[in-house]
Amino acid sequence: MNFVNNLLKIFRLQNKNCLFVLNNQSINIVSQKSNRKLMKKLFSTLVAVFVFAVASQAQGVLKFGKETHDFGKLAEGPVATYSFEVTNVGNAPVIISNAQPSCGCTTPEYSKDPIMPGAKSVIKVGYNTPGRPGTFIKTITVSSNAENSNVVLTIKGEVTPASQAAPTSTSNPVKKKA
């Protein structure tokens, strides 16, 4: 019986432009005009929630061919570069907003254009070897609007020191005759 008393009962009067809402606490009289406005607001809210839910399901997904590249042994001097290939395997365009290297010796380059579903792009990463002999491991954090919004790419290798030129002797200089 308690359950029945707590149920909300709505009675419409045929001859009046009013709506009586009865619950176990009180009786409220609501005009039909305000009821229509309330229903329009409720309907608009439900439509907005539905559109948002559908839109949130459509999302791009970045898939990298590989996320780590090993340069092996590199000679000190030239910039070592590698291009990471990426494909959007999702169902919405993906925009890469940033590619943040772990230090200033690493320079990423990427397209600011959207990567459409099924399309490929490249993130070119350069490592400056001059003055950096030894083993290195550097990361690049790729940020985007994809489902996997942050992906960490890694480059590694070993820079061998540049061969030093043979020292010149200054004790016995050879003079050229003019």
What's the layout of helices and strands?
Elements: H1 2-6, E1 9-12, E2 18-22, E3 27-31, H2 32-57, E4 62-64, E5 68-75, E6 79-88, E7 96-101, E8 106-109, E9 120-128, E10 134-144, E11 150-160
Parallel strand pairs: 5-11
Antiparallel strand pairs: 1-2, 2-3, 4-6, 6-9, 7-10, 8-9, 10-11
- Number of E-type strands: 11
User: What is the domain total for the residues?
Assistant: 2
What proportion strand?
35-45%
Which sequence of strands runs across the widest sheet?
4-6-9-8
Largest pleated sheet: 4 strands, antiparallel
Kindly name the structural category. Answer: alpha+beta
- Name of the top-level CATH class of the largest domain: Mainly Beta
Question: What is the name of the CATH superfamily of the largest domain?
Answer: Immunoglobulins
Number of helices: 2
Kindly report how far apart the N and C termini lie.
124 Å
Q: What number is the mean pLDDT?
A: 78
State the order of secondary-structure elements, H for helix, E for strand.
Answer: HEEEHEEEEEEEE
Radius of gyration: 34 Å
Question: What CATH architecture of the largest domain would you give?
Answer: Sandwich
**CATH topology title of the largest domain:** Immunoglobulin-like
